[in-house]
Write a structure and sequence with these properties.
It is a single chain. By secondary structure, this protein is of the alpha+beta class. 20% of the residues lie in helices and 20% in strands. The chain contains 16 helices and 33 strands. The strands form nine sheets. It has an eight-stranded parallel barrel with strand order 15-16-19-20-23-24-25-26. Strands 1, 2, 3, 6 and 7 form a five-stranded antiparallel β-sheet that branches. Strands 5-4-8-14-11 form a five-stranded antiparallel β-sheet, with no helix packed on it. The radius of gyration is 28 Å and the shape is elongated.
Amino acid sequence: MRRRYSTRRGDVSPGVPCPLGARWDGAGVNFALFSEHAERVELCLFRPDRRRETERIEMPERTDGVWHCHLSDVRPGQLYGYRVYGPYDPSHGHRFNPKKLLLDPYAFDIAGPLDWRYPHFGYRHGDDLVPDGRDNAAGALKAKVVERAFTWGDDRPPRTPLDETIIYELHVKGFTRRHPKVPEALRGTYAGLASDAAIDHLKRLGVTAVELLPVHAFVQDRHLVERGLANYWGYNTIGFFAPERRYAATSDPVGEFKTMVKRLHAAGLEVILDVVYNHTAEGNHLGPTLSFRGIDNASYYRLSPEDPRYYMDYTGTGNTLDTTHPRVLQLIMDSLRYWVEEMHVDGFRFDLATTLGRESDAFDPAGGFFDIIRQDPVISQVKLIAEPWDVGEGGYRVGGFPPPFSEWNGKYRDVVRAYWKGEGGLVGELASRLTGSSDLYQSAGRRPQASINFVTAHDGFTLDDLVSYNEKHNEANGEDNNDGENHNLSWNCGVEGPTDDPEVLALRARQKRNFLATLLLSQGVPMILAGDEMGRTQRGNNNAYCQDNEISWLDWDLSEDDEDLLLFTRGLIRLRRSHPDFHRRHFFQGRASEGVTDVAWISPDGKEMTQEEWNTSYARSLGMQIFGSARAGYPEASRPEADDNFLLLFNAHHEELPFVIPSDPPGARWQPLVDTFYPASRELSGVYKPGDPYPLKARSMAVLIQLREAGEDF
């Protein structure tokens, strides 16, 4: 028997086509959905249990490709979806199937999860050219009408200058899931991240911003669910406006997220979102029909020009959103503005950002996506960070993005890893990375802050694993250890994995201090992976995307060595934040025409590096002298803040090196502040004069400060 649905004809009015989505206006709800190629659209309403469809209303109006109506008696909390009618013709790019309930791309809250027991695939099993006639509504995701009002009070974004920013990349769930001082009901949630215990750790550490792995609503992949695993990282977005409900301790994820932001702001911490606008969770031509594919496949996705049945895949996920389409650009910009204006976030890190800048096939830094970002009065003023690569041809674009974008600097990661691993002949490139990578950014008129420096990130080894494993150990992922990166530039210090050997453990601890000191004292913006400051391990798994368990969650039960590393990291961050020498707004000039030197490179004999020494293939040592007192010769607008003079000494060799203190400035006295050979609990002593050898231990780094004489003011 065919179910009859009320048409609610007396309650339906035309409404308006803008803004898109479901908007409560106090007198009802306006619904607006873009679909350029649809022939008919039905709005479907559901009971709170999410399974019973109660009414279908044919959208009466269409304006410029937007279907819209207004219902006077609908209120916040109403669940809804769409059925979109049109041709099912994959060979021409169309995959309409009204048997599949579709999620509103502008859903501000999403009721789920997706139940894979229902037929969410738009085609008959085994043949995507034939539509499937089964209804999936009972197990489909539903959008929820929300009340968007929130009392922000005196909330103000911290607006930390980019040159003073220190980013901490974390997973909302993994950060607090095992934290003993976070109330159990709040662990792993937005409220948990906003708890006193979580904020206390971030404040004491000294970071200025948290970068959250994806919190846009995402789908658990069917193949992972069937294997008892989960999409932990969340790079499988289905809703670009809705916060992921799995991270909510309450039934109101929108309000909980806003409260989290408000509390972090009150603590002086910015919130940066890792966002995935390059693809959706619908996969390739054999993927499910959940939203965009069934609403207007030919408009939302990049289809193969030779055969529109298939998708252009620059992302490695099966599909690519078409950022050359004006409505897709509108979706992205509307989403970005929503998260800034209504959710008060402070910036974005764009996953696989090269894809967003592809015009036709090639990457274009002057393309439409960048143009619309740069002219936008809201988005152009927040922090914008690109992951400057994708899997397509010519996808590695480090240094190729236009301002105001900063970039994850993969070249920084690779040379720092290789140098401390012990590879020779890298001191020239290391010097470029230490000083902000001017070879990548200065010619484009950018500053050191364009470089987001990192040694580790969510994708790859943790810092502890970087010094404990030569090979990846991803067996828990169920892919026979074939997934994940093979070229990790890691070194296990002599033993693969856990060991009780005190010499190996001491070397690993030293290497971790080397990486952290290099990262936090380089020009540019440092990014720390959550847990690296206290020895977090993933047991050698360098692709823990599907490990929603103790492999990925932070362990807050710290050993004595973990506590010491945490103390060391805090000290480094204090040093960086208290000295503008380590976060300059402009690139070093080197030896300026007026004879002023702001940075010099020193060889172990205490003299400036010669060209031959720069080119030596076995070189593993380097001295970097920063003259914080050098301010003459700079234009007034770019003149650096006066600071102390510093000497940074690097030795990746396996033997101790007596590094001679340079003669400039004459008569200077130098005191060690940091020596990575020793744990943080070890107090450093001694004063060194020009010509004195500093005993730079094997595989270690030292930082010395020039002592000021009485009355001397740099």
